[in-house]
Structure formats: C-alpha cells, structure tokens
Description:
It is a single chain. By secondary structure, this protein is mainly alpha-helical. The chain has nine helices and no strands. One of its GO terms (molecular function) is RNA binding. Keywords: Mitochondrion, Ribonucleoprotein, Ribosomal protein, Transit peptide. Belongs to the universal ribosomal protein uS15 family.
Amino acid sequence: MNSLRLLGSNLRILVIKYDASSIKLQTLPxxxxxxxxxxxxxNICSENTETNLPQQPGKKYxxxxxxxxxxxxxxxxxxxxxxxxxxxxxxxxxxxxxxxxFELSDELKDADERVKQYFSCQTASRSEARExxxxxxxxxxxxxxxxxxxLEVKIALNTIQIRGLFNHKERKGKKEVVxxxxxxxxxxxxxxxxLNHLRxxxxxxxxWLLEELDLYLNPPPLGAKNEKYCKKWDLxxxxxxxxxxxxxxxxxxxxEELKKQQAEFLxxxxxxxxxxxxxxxxxxxx
Length: 286
C-alpha cells in the first residue's frame, strides 16, 4: 500500500514538474517504470490524443529547374588530384644512377660491374633514390651550381615532392592517405601560383620548364575574373545568354520575313510611281 502511495505521489510530482500534456503522459510511465503495462497512462488518460499530435514540417528540397526553357546541369567538381598538371604522377629514378655522394668517385668509375650495381640506385633506399633524383633534376634546372632560390628550382623541388606524395597516397594506409590528401592540394596550388608568376616574368623560361618537368598548365586569360561557382549566378548567366540568343533569333526571323515582303513592296512601288507619272501628265505638272 505504501509503495502504491509513493508511486502515485512520484507520478503526480513528475506531471507537475514537466507540465505534461496528454502526449507526454503516454511516454512518462514507460520512461520511468519500464514496460509495466499496468502503469501505462492510456488507462489514466482515456481521451484520444492522435488528433492533437503536432505535424512535423515536410522536408525542404531544393527548387527544381524543370521550368527553365534551357537545360542546366551542375558543373562537375574540380578534382585537383586528377587535374594537378602532372603528365607523370610518379618519381621515375634511373637505376643506373650512382647513390648520392658517390657520383664523383673516380674509383667507382673503374670498378667491377657488381660494385657499380651495389652503389647504384638499384639497391638504394627510398630516401637515397629521392636524393639522387633531386640532384639530377637540379643539374638540369639550375642556372649555376649555387642556384637554390630561383623560381625554376623551387618549382622543380615542389614537383618532386608532389609526385612523391602521389605514390605515398596510393601506397600507405588510412592516416597517411589523409595526410597526403591534405598536403597535396596546398603544394599543387603553391606550384601553380609560382608557375603563373614565372609565366608573367619570363614566358620562354616558363615553356622550357614545362617541357623539362613534364607539366601542363591552362591558366585563365589575362584580365579574366575567377568567380566562385554558384548555382544562382550560373542560372543568371545562362538566362542572360538565352535572352540574348532569343533577341538575335527574333531579329533574324524578322529580317527574313522582310526579305520575303521585299518583292511585293517593289512591285507596289513601281505601280504607285507609274500612277504618279500618269497623274502628272494629265495635270501638266512638271
């Protein structure tokens, strides 16, 4: 008996505390008393509350573009990994190159083939092969042996790092792939900005560097604004183009219609001029 009194008092306190309506009362006993069907408030509140349930607002979908007189498709997203500008997306190291710090050895030049093979990039580690490739590229790009700060050298070193990260992204695990995906776009954008700067400074040097590093770059025309892509502005642009095209088409159609009426107009003009001449002769008007 005491337990029932406590149960009733607790239930009354809960109702007063939460200002529970009939909808909340249906959930309170199950929340606090488990699945005890004898305490379900459907026995307490006999009124049908289904009509009082609040209706959830419908899901807001984006407006369709079926009403437009032209077709519109969203522009495909720019994939910086596929359109990075690298024709070759890996660092290709010549296996016949000697390891770093052994290229100037005179004894290695006269050594046995097995010794040369041991000190070549065939048996080199990844860091040694990358350093050998770096030195080989710098020899081709540098203007002088102490050139390490020119734009060409910076672009070449950046390209080696980018192509190494392409291999790293495909070969390593999940965490390393995430790191490569974060760093690669930063390096690619930095290299593109340096290439654009070199293009403005020395166009011949720029074209030569693209051939040396197997790169391609399609910069926007000079003076063009690189606006952020947006559906609203894209639809406005297409609408303006459609309106201009419609005006041109209507003018062309009207011009063709006037051409067809030109023959009738000339015949009527001849007839009117002949009538004017007859009237002048009849009235003796000069």
